[in-house]
Amino acid sequence: MKNKIITLKRYICGKEEFNFQELFLSTTYETESLPINVFLLEHKKFGNILINTGCTGLLKKNPLLFSALKAKRKISFQDSDSIIKHLEQENMDPICIKKVLLTHCYPECCGALPLIPKYEILSTAQVVCMLKFPDTAEGAMKSTFPNKKIPIKATGIFNEETFLKKYFKWIYDVLGDGSILAFDLSGHAKAMTGFFLPERNILFAADAAIDERVLDEMLTPNEKLLELQYDPDDYISHIITLRRLHRENPDIKILFSHSTVKENLLDSL
């Protein structure tokens, strides 16, 4: 288990605006533009791995779908926000990306997939089914999904002991070596996956909440925010679960798609 994840970095690949007073009960927070995070980790055996890909200009190639997306969610991004541009700035060729871990089938998760030359997609069976048999609600995601055939693999069950089993029904072994564990977080989306890095005590909870304040300050979603979720009951259930996990395991760093964190997480923890 030790030292399998060599580096872990965060890149901002777009932003999304949230009006907290419209989405939560009794909060003094106002409107904020929060990052759309993409994480790049270097694994000792499996090389460079992305968690999601962020937004790219490919979304704008279908004006109708892009307008519908903008009407529903206040997403903004520049060409320079592309994960590909970030990699190029660090002199990394996108062909170095060997695997992409997807949390869910939204355009900011899949947006840059067509720009990565060769890779394998990994996620839980729930998300893999959405990728292979997408429904009409995922039109924006389909508009940016590559036409080429990509290996898509569902993670296997993790049979060893982990504290996560106290909080989630099924735990999955993403790479088969215990270095990245996955679990179901459906609610915000029809299928959504969270990822845990045991070596570094980092848990990535995707869009299970807007950011850490929902856990730290017990922000309560209002009716408008719940109406935006695929399954409001599951959404609330997972917030409660993450709050309990956070309270009982304060050494675990819980991050979300819109968290504001330092770029090099291994240096900051």
- Which architecture name does CATH use? 4-Layer Sandwich
Give the structural class.
alpha/beta
Largest sheet strand order: 5-1-3-4-6-7-8
Total discrete domains: 1
- Determine Rg (CA atoms, Å): 17 Å
Morphology call:
globular
Unreliable residue runs:
none
Number of helices: 10
- The H-level CATH homologous superfamily, spelled out, is Ribonuclease Z/Hydroxyacylglutathione hydrolase-like
Output mean pLDDT: 90
Topology record:
Layout: E1 5-19, H1 20-23, E2 24-25, E3 31-43, E4 47-51, H2 63-72, E5 75-76, H3 83-89, E6 97-101, H4 107-110, E7 120-123, H5 125-132, H6 139-144, E8 152-154, E9 156-157, E10 171-173, E11 181-184, E12 193-197, E13 202-204, H7 213-216, E14 220-221, H8 223-227, H9 232-248, E15 253-255, H10 265-268
Parallel strand pairs: 4-6, 6-7, 7-8, 13-15
Antiparallel strand pairs: 1-3, 1-5, 2-14, 3-4, 9-10, 10-11, 11-12, 12-13
Describe the structure.
By secondary structure, the chain is α/β, with parallel strands linked by helices. It is built from 10 helices and 15 strands. It has helices spanning 20-23, 63-72, 83-89, 107-110, 125-132, 139-144, 213-216, 223-227, 232-248, 265-268, and strands at residues 5-19, 24-25, 31-43, 47-51, 75-76, 97-101, 120-123, 152-154, 156-157, 171-173, 181-184, 193-197, 202-204, 220-221, 253-255. The two termini are 18 Å apart. The mean pLDDT is 90.
